[in-house]
Specification:
The structure is a homodimer of 175-residue chains. By secondary structure, chain A is of the alpha/beta class. In chain A, 25% of the residues lie in helices and 33% in strands. In chain A, a hairpin with a 5-residue loop joins strand 10 and strand 11. The first copy, chain A, is globular, with a radius of gyration of 16 Å. The interface between A and B is medium-sized, with 33 and 33 residues.
Chain lengths: 175, 175
């Protein structure tokens, strides 16, 4: 069972502006970025997103995922009609989520959404961390990392530099 | 007149633990890191440090700098006897510091110390940002970046990967 984080941040560590905008990041989404994401997602068998990310995705013109999607929420009881056959609600903590997905035969899980990622890091359940750093300080916003009481050591495995200056580094949890 | 920042951070953006410790970073200071620092510092003609960094440096067995050093402080009136001929106190804001150093014939300034770096970024006076990222989340500590009301775009110029996984990226301010 492996959990992956694949995310873009500003140089100052934000994944979105305070209002959720990622315009500053999207400008770096060139062909290299799209290809990299496809390579990543081809190795994934389930996607777990937080409630916030789910709300964002609902605003997209089409459903962006072609893998089983699980929405983590304690408050959401039912999915909107349009996406009912596209996602499943999970009201579990990170450890239980991975156990549940393992029982269902999944083994490579993409964790997406700021708060969800922080909860998986706090539980030390992230195996690979892939961070794409945009060469811009946005000054304020939603931070990728939150306070933790413990350290987590990773091994750097590779870094790719996009032609537009995005630096994508791959890290594997050292255990 | 160019101001440079050359600093190491954790993956979660801290430059020191809350108590000031940088043990987690020092473990990555191999030959490559030392050579890189020497290359950087050879292109610098003055070093400007904050009061906190100055206090830290006073605890070192020997004075670590071989360039003119300026200590930025509004409260410090006099330097300790042992380092009186090694540094100069400046009680000025970032713009005035650069003007003053320019008048003295300096043109490539190394800005060091967390709060000082933040004040130079807030004034948009940093021309080059060189960040060495250690592959570890330390969970809490002193952050490199602080809140800013404006964005700052940089151009990524190069990235070096140390054999021990430290990722050093060079950024130049885009104007």
């Amino acid at each position: 069972m492996k959990a992956f984080v694949y995310i873009g941040t500003s140089l100052d560590g934000f994944i979105a502006r305070t209002n959720g905008d990622i315009d500053w990041l999207v400008q770096f989404a060139n062909e290299e970025a799209i290809q990299s994401y496809h390579e990543f997602i081809s190795g994934i068998d389930a996607i777990v997103i937080g409630r916030g990310t789910f709300e964002t995705v609902l605003g997209f013109p089409t459903w962006p995922y072609d893998k089983p999607v699980f929405v983590v929420s304690t408050s959401l009881k039912e999915l909107p009609e349009a996406v009912k056959n596209k996602a499943t609600i999970l009201s579990l903590d990170p450890n239980a989520i991975l156990q549940q997905l393992s029982l269902q035969g999944f083994s490579r899980i993409y964790i997406d959404g700021g708060k969800l990622i922080q909860s998986f890091l706090k539980a030390d359940l992230v195996n690979e961390l892939i961070i794409s750093k945009a060469p811009i300080l946005i000054g304020s916003g939603r931070a990728l990392f939150g306070e933790m009481k413990h350290e987590l050591e990773f091994e750097h495995t590779r870094t790719f530099i996009q032609s537009n200056g995005l630096v994508r580094s791959f890290y594997v949890r050292k255990r």
